[in-house]
């Protein structure tokens, strides 16, 4: 790997399922715009990365002062997520090398942890295909009959929820997305495109609380997750900085 990392953040969605007065990435989450929360996490983990933010060309909510990265650019969002990501890859193409690592992360996933981001990068650093954060399915899976009743119970063996980031080499990802689009496949994540060209992305087990904010109730859940993560982080920092107590005088030190 060349060592250069690009972060592509699709943030051009309209948030229709959220049903708010503005796209969900601009709704307040624990007092700050959701987009700021996501960019802050990414920057904490990968401060030297180059950011490419996919934004709706008609977006009037975005404030460039929110971006913590030294190297960043914006590219126009497309009709669907895959189009936004393809535009981003076109946008960085003049400066990206084929073996640069590209991590694609939904702006709608603000609870991704620094630990998971670093683990993903380490896990795929020497993987010629790349991979994605994912969690094994934990519920019993039902298939409906189209009329609100169960047609079958599906096996959950080997099923995973695909999360983001998803990380692949620039050259491979661009080829894969262009191939999927040329075949008319509206892939919903980067891994699907890489599967289209016959490769098997690595599943990197991630935290279940890396949730995608999609529906109104997800905002309250994400606030709870962020608060729990901050508390755990503070406790760990306190434990690391506290001086171990000196053993009592005369105690056996063996
Ligand atoms: N044309 C699009 C559609 C989606 N996204 C981004 O892709 C991610 C995942 O999409 P989703 O959760 O479906 O977001 P929305 O499209 O905003 O939501 P909805 O489908 O409810 O409208 C989000 O970060 C969203 O901003 C994008 O960049 N360009
Ligand atoms: C990429 C993704 O987050 C993986 O779970 C998800 O597919 C994006 O949401 P969408 O509704 O499919 O755009």
TrEMBL record:
- Keywords, in A-Z order: Isoprene biosynthesis, Nucleotidyltransferase, Transferase
Database matches in CDD domains: CDP-ME_synthetase
Q: What pathway does this protein act in?
A: Isoprenoid biosynthesis; isopentenyl diphosphate biosynthesis via DXP pathway; isopentenyl diphosphate from 1-deoxy-D-xylulose 5-phosphate: step 2/6
Presence of keyword Transferase: yes
Question: What catalytic activity is recorded?
Answer: 2-C-methyl-D-erythritol 4-phosphate + CTP + H(+) = 4-CDP-2-C-methyl-D-erythritol + diphosphate
- Which InterPro entries does the entry mention? IspD (IPR001228), IspD/TarI (IPR034683), IspD/TarI_cytidylyltransf_bact (IPR050088), ISPD_synthase_CS (IPR018294), Nucleotide-diphossugar_trans (IPR029044)
Task: Mention one GO molecular function.
Answer: 2-C-methyl-D-erythritol 4-phosphate cytidylyltransferase activity
Q: Where is this region: Disordered?
A: 233-254
Mind telling me which residues the site (Positions MEP for the nucleophilic attack) is annotated on? 156, 212
The EC number on file is 2.7.7.60
What positions are marked as the site Transition state stabilizer?
Answer: 17, 24
Do you know which SUPFAM superfamilies this protein is assigned to? Answer: Nucleotide-diphospho-sugar transferases
Q: Give the family per the record.
A: Belongs to the IspD/TarI cytidylyltransferase family. IspD subfamily.
User: What PANTHER family does the database record attribute to this sequence?
Assistant: 2-C-METHYL-D-ERYTHRITOL 4-PHOSPHATE CYTIDYLYLTRANSFERASE, CHLOROPLASTIC (PTHR32125:SF4)
Q: What does this protein do?
A: Catalyzes the formation of 4-diphosphocytidyl-2-C-methyl-D-erythritol from CTP and 2-C-methyl-D-erythritol 4-phosphate (MEP).
Q: What is the protein name for this chain?
A: 2-C-methyl-D-erythritol 4-phosphate cytidylyltransferase
* Protein species of origin: Halomonas aquatica
Name the lineage: Bacteria, Pseudomonadati, Pseudomonadota, Gammaproteobacteria, Oceanospirillales
